[in-house]
Amino acid sequence: MNRGMLMGWLLLASAASAVCGPYTIFNGDGSDEPGFVPPPREPVLPSPPPRSVSSAETTIPFPPPPVVPLSRTEAKKPPRPPVLFTKIRTAHVLDWAATPNDVNNLLKKMKNSMDVNYAMEIKTLAQVDGDPENNPILYRSGHYHFAFTPAERAKLRAFMLDGGMLVLNTGLGSKPFYDSAKKELGLIFPEVHLQRLSADHPIFHAYFDLDRVTYRRGVYETDFRGDEPWFEGVTIDCRTVAVISRWGLAVGWEENENDAYQAYASEDAQKLGVNLFAYATAQRAWAKQAAGRMAFVDEEDAFAGKMFLGQVVYDGEWKTRHAGLSILLQTFNRKTDVPVKFALKELRLSDPAVFDIPLLYVTGHEHFELGPDELAGLRQYLLNGGFVLAEACCGRKGFDLAFRTQVARLLPEYPLKRVPSGSLLFRLPNSVTRAGVTPALQAQLGSAAIEPVLYGIEIEGHYGLIYSPFGMAGGWELSQNPYAYGYEEGAAMLLGQNILMYAITQ
């Protein structure tokens, strides 16, 4: 992009605003809607990326770049740093370039404070390479309504499923852009629930611990109250692939200190930006490693007399790992030679069909609530002798708190208690006295192996519900997320098999 081209776009935008209104860029752009916040009216040309020594992509936290000795007599041009961030350019420069130096300034901050060196690019979505290795994070910022084409949605979906990340920044909290961002992610991933990320999400702790932030005065002049960061995300197989920031990040990256803006304070905006990069980098490396791991194939016609197990559907992120439970069931059959084959159904607790299913599985990452009919259905299911296996996927506190709250409402006469170490749950078919844990949980607990922790609701002498506050499904898939607080693969599989054995024999 050159100066003449950008100035031409700015002149076109100015001409359009003179005809349609001071901030209009196209009909239906949302500039006349409640909650619209116009972009700053002093557009500045983006600064060129700094010339500096390249660093290879690193793990998190970032080590310094490798030293490459140069010849004493031969002058060499420093290699270009790897691209981390691609800013999406659209036809309306007043929208996408309202904060033209946002990413550049953030990358400079990262280089100066952490000695890491990455580059950015500005491209249209058509110019973007679909391989995340070449542009791992796509960034779209704006103030107005927008829409992707069906082809662009398909391209973005494939990009994110292949390990890339999409970050959508709501410029100065402008609601038309925010509404469009939510709509577009719903169209790209119709099967996944877009959900606000709780303060314990790894994005808020990937480099800086930032579960509380400082907002500018402009945020509190809306109806919002609170001090937790507001990101909404699409999470697939424990990896958040797309993020919407409800309040502005970009002006903080540019260090524009206008307190009237609906934005994060500059220091916290920059920390959130670093966390996004750290999270995306670590998750992309993990996604590459996890690709090709064990996949489950349901032998749909290979056997008769299936026992159906149910995964509970609720309003929220109810499906975290797509193959974990199926893999566990398959390994259980091989381990025990129990002549029962399993298949899975996905259903709500208000569905009468739950009473025909001997075991229900409940999981999630974030906060959720069950409706009165769902709570009533689950209560009757347990009192009728059904069995529930539940886990906080990745050991996430949002789900843990919500699940404990729902259970207390569900069966107040049967409290959730820790399962004692001598229980059959830890003896058959596997003896499990110590359980290995993930590196993240090890760092928290100070031990690589712990006495296994399960909680249960005991009804008339046996457990009708077993709950793990630490994640297991990633271990069943042999690919625990690097941020997971959970059991390592072997322990997760052994505990899962024991729970299934208990469920069908007690």
Largest sheet: 7 strands, mixed
Q: Give the low-pLDDT segments.
A: 1-19, 49-74, 292-305
Which percent range fits the helix content? 25-40%
| Number of E strands | 16
Strand content: 15-25%
H-E order:
HEHHEEHEHEHEEHHEHEEHEHEEHEEEHH
Strand numbers in spatial order across the main sheet: 2-1-3-4-7-6-5
Structural class: alpha/beta
**Overall average pLDDT:** 86
Question: What is the C-alpha radius of gyration, as a whole number of Å?
Answer: 25 Å
- Give the end-to-end Cα distance, rounded to a whole number of Å: 69 Å
Instruction: Compute the number of helices.
Output: 14
CATH architecture of the largest domain: 3-Layer(aba) Sandwich
Total domain units: 2
The CATH superfamily title of the largest domain? Domain of unknown function DUF4159
The CATH topology annotation of the largest domain reads as Rossmann fold
Query: Class of the largest domain, according to the CATH hierarchy?
Result: Alpha Beta
Based on Cα principal axes, name the global outline.
Answer: elongated
